[in-house]
Amino acid sequence: MLLLAPVLALAQGKDGKEGLDALRSRIERLRAEITAAEESRTEARDQLQESERAISEANRSLRSLSGKRSAAQNELKMLAGQTRAAGAEIALRQESLGRLLTLRYLNGEQNYLKLVLSGEDPGRMARELHYYTYISRAQSEIINVLRSGLARMRELETRTLEKSAELAGIEAAQRKERSALLRQQAERRGVLAHVSTQLREQRRQVKRFERDESRLSRLVEELGKVIAATPSGRGRLNEKVPEPGGAEGLFAGLKGGLRLPIRGEVTNNFGALRFSGGPPWKGLFIRSPSGQNVRAVASGRVVFADWLRGFGNLLIVDHGQAYLTIYGNNESVLKQIGDTVRTGDVVATVGASGGNTESGLYFEIRHEGKAFDPMRWVKLQ
């Protein structure tokens, strides 16, 4: 059985970073071993690997930078509001202080010694002393508040400058990543044009589909072994996966209630025969425009996020109870191994990676390594 969710939960505990790094290292070795064990070491689509990986990474970085940019902009707005409020408070206190000073000026400057020597009625003198004490205290309080307000204004100005510099840095990084993305997209188009004839020939090879299916099945099987071998990775077979709203439920209980990861046309169904021959489809191919968001169908944790021959930029999410969902041929994978995802989270973007001729998503659901019909689990309304 695949016990990925409990293992990753433990890996992110006390020694989270070390455990997660070790897990990522094991999975990377697994991917390399699968690649090294290929019957055919060279295929035309392999030449797309580097540029498609780079496109995925650049898009993931851009998404992250966009989130940071939005957060920085929101903080700048908040700081601007706080600065305006502090300025208004200072102006109010200055006005109050001005009124007090004017009042003291109009009533004449008095002090304790003058009042004692004035020979006035003691009762009136006591009232005057109390009044001037009150005025002096109020004046002192206003001055202290003014000093505090001015210090707050200086602090806000410093934070605003720092946040503005941070925002400028984020925007510069975004421009750099966009340039890199454009370069990688151009490189992929060039490679695609160069190997297009080879790709067409290899797509007609029945054995290629068999190798692709075998490769994914082996990856799923070996992932289970790798994770199960991780320290503290055994036990808790009925691990619950958190659902939105704080409730906990088992993936098996979601049957009939899942939504497809993207909007689009299902052009290949589970069990359907391929036009060019080879094994029947083990999942769905959903035709959709490039760049559309791919969403997780349920909560879980990412256990694979890399390029794999036949599936391009591939993402696999573990949902506990040995249930996996598989998202292939993505333009970009936006999550990394160990990331927790919630139902509806954007985990990838649609593409045609891995040598596909049309843009769309390849989607599978597996239990204990075996694929089954996703359409029996989804709600199409």
Q: Runs with pLDDT <50, length 5+?
A: 1-14, 232-248
Give the fraction of residues assigned to helices.
40-55%
Which descriptor suits the 3D outline? elongated
Number of strands: 12
Query: What is the H/E string?
Result: HHHHHHEEEEEEEEEEEE
Radius of gyration: 33 Å
- Give the N-to-C terminal Cα separation: 33 Å
* Average pLDDT for all residues: 77
Q: Estimate the strand proportion.
A: 15-25%
Summing up helix and strand content along with how strands pair, one would put the structural category as alpha+beta
Largest sheet: 10 strands, antiparallel
- Helix count, DSSP H or I runs of 4 or more residues: 6
Descriptive overview:
The chain is of the alpha+beta class. Helices cover 52% and strands 16% of the residues. It has helices at residues 4-11, 16-36, 49-107, 112-117, 122-203, 206-228, and strands spanning 241-242, 248-249, 265-268, 284-287, 293-295, 300-308, 312-318, 323-333, 340-341, 346-350, 360-367, 370-372. The strands form 2 sheets. Strands 3, 4, 5, 6, 7, 8, 9, 10, 11 and 12 form a 10-stranded antiparallel β-sheet that branches. β1 and β2 form a beta hairpin. α2 packs antiparallel against α6 and α3 (49-107) packs antiparallel against α5 (122-203).
